[in-house]
Design brief:
By secondary structure, the chain is α/β, with parallel strands linked by helices. It is 36% helix and 17% strand. An 8-stranded mixed sheet has the order 3-2-1-4-5-6-7-8, with helices on both faces. β1 (7-11), α1 (17-27) and β2 form a beta-alpha-beta unit. The radius of gyration is 17 Å and the shape is globular. The model has no long low-confidence stretch (mean pLDDT 96).
């Protein structure tokens, strides 16, 4: 049931980042909407089934969330898809694999970000109005076995950069969040769910747009590399 409490929508509610972000925002008084491909009960919020490989499903999803809880004031896109390729022959990546994974990594992000702007337009000026995409270092340089993921992250980083400029005067904030090691290296599989949660809370609570490429280090917050 919709209340006056703000709403966070987490697209791609995994057991690490998604779960930590959900709990952190719930502790701040947010109503939490979670999505995943399979419908399942969750102790962390109200669950909605959604296939992020289908960009056309975003309109219906946002309508369902708004009807149940109200328009989201924070949206976190936390999904990704990848097929590792031969590091010595990256162009052997099949077009069909790239097309399928771009739907999750980029095209559905565009659809979700568009629906997000429509939701933000319904909110009062005091609302957070923050869109966060969980990225990585691939938009700044290649990791040879990850061509498909790198193409998707790079394209979406460009999208987030554009949105952060275009919607700044409306008070809408857009971020490409990227956890790094203290020396700026990628985290690979050692991503910290709690560090993402703390950082995302800070982005949501900020009154103005910060650097769209939001690189951060656990325990240190935003760190420019």
């Amino acid at each position: 049931m919709s209340t006056n409490a703000p709403v966070i929508l987490i697209l791609g509610a995994g057991a690490n980042i998604g779960a930590h972000v959900a709990r952190a925002f719930a502790a701040k008084g947010y109503q939490v909407a979670l999505t995943s491909r399979t419908k399942k009960p969750s102790e962390d919020g109200l669950h909605f089934q959604s296939d992020l490989s289908d960009p056309s499903s975003m309109t219906s999803l946002f309508q369902q969330v708004t009807k149940a809880l109200g328009p989201p004031s924070v949206v976190v896109y936390n999904a990704s898809a990848m097929t590792p390729n031969d590091k010595d022959d990256p162009l052997s990546l099949s077009v069909s694999d790239l097309t399928r994974e771009l739907a999750v990594n980029t095209t559905s992000v565009l659809a979700a970000a568009h629906e997000t702007t429509l939701a933000f337009a319904e909110l009062p000026a005091s609302a957070s109005k923050t869109f966060i995409y969980t990225g990585n270092k691939l938009n700044t340089g290649p990791i040879l076995p990850l061509l498909s993921l790198g193409i998707g992250k790079s394209a979406t980083a460009h999208m987030i950069s554009s949105a952060s400029q275009a919607y700044k005067e409306k008070g809408y904030k857009f971020y490409y969040a990227d956890e790094r090691t203290s020396d700026g290296a990628p985290m690979y599989k050692d991503l910290s769910g709690s560090a993402h949660a703390d950082f995302y809370i800070g982005l949501a609570e900020s009154k103005t747009q910060g650097p769209w490429q939001a690189t951060f280090v656990k325990g240190s917050g935003y760190t420019e590399f």
